[in-house]
Amino acid sequence: MGDMNTKDFLIGTLIGGIVGATTALFLAPKSGKELRSDISEQAHLAKEKTAQITNDVYEKGNEWVDIAKEKSTSIAKNVSEQSQQVVDKVKDLSTSAKQEAEDQMIEAKSLAKDLKEDAKEAGKNIAETVKNEVDDAEKKAKAAAKK
Questions:
Q1: pTM (2 d.p.)
Q2: Which residues form a coiled coil (predicted)?
Q3: Which pLDDT tens digit goes with each residue over 37-47?
Q4: Which residue from 32, 71, 124, 129 lies 20 to 30 Å from 114 (Cα-Cα)?
Q5: Domain that holds residue 18
Q6: How many folded domains does the chain comprise?
């Protein structure tokens, strides 16, 4: 919005200067030859001023373009660096989470194996105890049958 106001101001100033100079020439009491000479001189001055303003605006525009390029390059570089850091952190977290899951899986398998062995051992102990109790009951039954 500020650029448009500056542009409008410059155009208005240029047109106002041309209109003012032309009005001054036409209202001045001079001969036709002097008037044509003054108009030609003023037109030449207006052309020079317009060329100078055009050059100034062009140079200023180029400066702004250079500044914009520098800033956008800097911003793009920062965004790229930060994106890479985020990607690296995600990869690190993913790797450590995968490793932790693998460690937990190994531990779970080990615990399951231990429980299976404990269950086998407990089953053997129970079976042995039951066999002993049955043998004892059988002995008692035979002893009672002999009496």
A1: 0.40
A2: 98-147
A3: 877 888 888 88
A4: 129
A5: 2-110
A6: 1
